[in-house]
């Protein structure tokens, strides 16, 4: 749905006008402003009827202005199937939320998240017959089925961009002639905050990189204040997902966990001599049970309960670990998960909460220096395709 917007540069607010005209315009602007404030307030009020709670937690009531980054995280076209996985999309979403926080604006969140086909082709719960399960085939899901929007709103006020709430606000205020939708591209965060041309607008429609929103936060490492940590969104899953994770953690008691990423990261390709090459040459080896066992022995004592989250689909792949550990997978808890899990993103979010509750947690690859990891290959920015190593 196309919503009319005003290109910032084309506005002639600053040109001198004959006094009576200026007065008339001023009066009109004030009337419009009052009307739009009333309008926004009444819409805010009606959120409660539509299932959106008024954000009473938000103490910045006077600044009910909006920030919009687009209808889909990271997705340029119609093809949800070519989207990035949950991790990338979360980085992007966090970047946008951070900007809303910085600008003190309500973030207009896409109401759906694309499910990447690469990361969602197979179910985990019933891995023996996963491809036949039609529930895994949808290519997007409702944002509310993944995240607790109210919980996020306690930190960054958020409204979903669904027609009921969001478009109502935009079209109403546009009709009043006081739409104040500015469309920006390539404008820095600081300028959006300081330049009244943008800061006074009811809605800032930013055109973020459609390929990867998180590019807008590229210089994040250099910035002195990181407003939202990487851990923010992983702690915000929808209530039913958090409840499921809590139940599973209770059943597990005290446990350790490993996250074993195989499938998606084990992408090999052949060079021109037909030799297999990989970006993570030790990963395939290091994520096999014999190597895992040797690696984690110094961190996780024999006899412990070990929760394994993995995208490995081979049945019994990790069974060799069972001579040292009591193994548990999400498939052990299908009675809790089956009724609520509709896609792999939700499942991973539950698994991630479980992993967070582990006494000792071993990742696939290090992200921070303090992380324990199965494999010493660098996770990011590897550009060298190397021959995989299988020997010790
Ligand atoms: C935001 O800008 C995009 C790109 O120009 C446009 O297609 C879209 O309709 C705008 N949305 C709103 C709500 O203004
Ligand atoms: C997988 O599911 C399909 C349809 O539900 C069924 O026909 C088939 O026999 C199942 N295969 C296995 C190996 O269980
Ligand atoms: C989980 O299921 C596996 C078989 O799939 C079984 O060997 C293991 O003991 C179960 N773990 C728990 C904690 O029930």
Polypeptide structure, described:
With 392 residues, the chain is of the alpha/beta class. It has two domains: 6-235, no CATH class; 239-375, Rossmann fold (3-Layer(aba) Sandwich), CATH 3.40.50. It has 13 helices and 15 strands. It has helices at residues 19-46, 86-103, 117-120, 143-146, 149-153, 163-175, 189-194, 196-199, 239-252, 283-286, 289-296, 334-337, 344-356, and strands at 6-7, 66-68, 106-109, 112-114, 140-142, 158-160, 181-184, 203-206, 256-260, 268-270, 276-278, 305-310, 326-328, 361-365, 372-375. The strands form four sheets. The protein has a six-stranded parallel β-sheet with strand order 1-7-8-2-3-6, with helices on both faces. It has a five-stranded parallel β-sheet with strand order 13-12-9-14-15, sandwiched between helices. The protein has a two-stranded antiparallel sheet with strand order 4-5. Helix 1 (19-46) runs antiparallel to helix 6 (163-175) and helix 9 packs across helix 13 (344-356). The N and C termini lie far apart (57 Å). Residues 1-19, 34-63 and 121-137 have low confidence and may be disordered. Bound molecules: 2-acetamido-2-deoxy-beta-D-glucopyranose (NAG) (3 copies).
Task: List the strand order in the largest sheet.
Answer: 1-7-8-2-3-6
Q: Number of DSSP helices?
A: 13
Instruction: Give me the strand/helix succession.
Output: EHEHEEHEHHEHEHHEHEEEHHEEHHEE
Q: State the domain count.
A: 2
Q: Mean pLDDT, as a whole number?
A: 77
Tell me the total number of β-strands: 15
What structural class is derived from the secondary structure elements? alpha/beta
Uncertain spans: 1-19, 34-63, 121-137
Secondary structure: helix percent: 25-40%
**Head-to-tail CA distance between termini:** 57 Å
- How would a textbook summarize the main sheet? 6 strands, parallel
Q: Which small molecules are bound?
A: 2-acetamido-2-deoxy-beta-D-glucopyranose
**What gross morphology would you assign?**
globular
Bin the strand percentage: 5-15%
CA-based gyration radius: 25 Å
């Amino acid at each position: 749905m196309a919503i009319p917007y005003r290109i910032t540069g084309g506005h002639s607010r600053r040109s001198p006008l004959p006094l009576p005209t200026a007065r008339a315009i001023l009066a009109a602007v004030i009337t419009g402003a009052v009307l739009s404030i009333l309008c926004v307030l009444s819409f805010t009020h009606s959120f409660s009827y539509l299932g959106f709670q008024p954000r009473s937690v938000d103490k910045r009531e006077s600044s009910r202005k909006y920030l919009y980054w687009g209808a889909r995280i990271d997705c340029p076209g119609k093809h949800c199937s070519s989207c990035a996985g949950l991790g990338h999309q979360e980085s992007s979403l966090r970047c946008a939320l951070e900007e809303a926080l910085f600008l003190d604006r309500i973030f207009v969140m896409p109401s759906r998240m694309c499910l990447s086909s690469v990361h969602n082709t197979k179910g985990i719960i019933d891995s023996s017959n996963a491809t036949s399960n039609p529930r895994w085939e949808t290519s997007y899901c409702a944002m509310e089925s993944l995240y607790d929007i109210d919980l996020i709103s306690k930190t960054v006020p958020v409204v979903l961009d669904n027609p009921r709430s969001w478009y109502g606000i935009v079209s109403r205020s546009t009709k009043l002639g006081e739409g104040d939708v500015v469309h920006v591209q390539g404008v820095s965060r600081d300028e959006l905050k300081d330049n009244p041309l943008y800061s006074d607008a009811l809605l800032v429609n930013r055109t973020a990189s459609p390929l990867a929103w998180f590019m807008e936060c590229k210089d994040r490492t250099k910035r002195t204040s990181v407003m939202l940590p990487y851990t923010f969104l992983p702690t915000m899953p929808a209530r039913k997902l958090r409840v499921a994770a809590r139940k599973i953690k209770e059943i597990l008691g005290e446990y350790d966990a490993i996250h074993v990423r195989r499938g998606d990261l084990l992408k090999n390709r052949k060079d021109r001599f037909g030799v297999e090459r990989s970006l993570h040459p030790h990963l395939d080896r290091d994520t096999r049970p014999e190597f895992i066992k040797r690696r984690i022995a110094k961190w996780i004592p024999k006899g412990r309960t070990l929760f394994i989250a993995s995208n490995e689909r081979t049945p019994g792949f990790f069974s060799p670990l069972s001579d040292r550990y009591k193994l548990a997978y999400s498939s052990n808890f299908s009675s809790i998960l089956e009724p609520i899990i509709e896609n792999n993103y939700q499942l991973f979010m539950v698994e991630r909460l479980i992993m967070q509750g582990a006494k000792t947690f071993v990742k696939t690859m290090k992200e921070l220096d303090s992380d324990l990891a199965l494999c010493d290959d660098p996770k990011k920015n590897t550009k060298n395709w190397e021959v995989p190593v299988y020997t010790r």
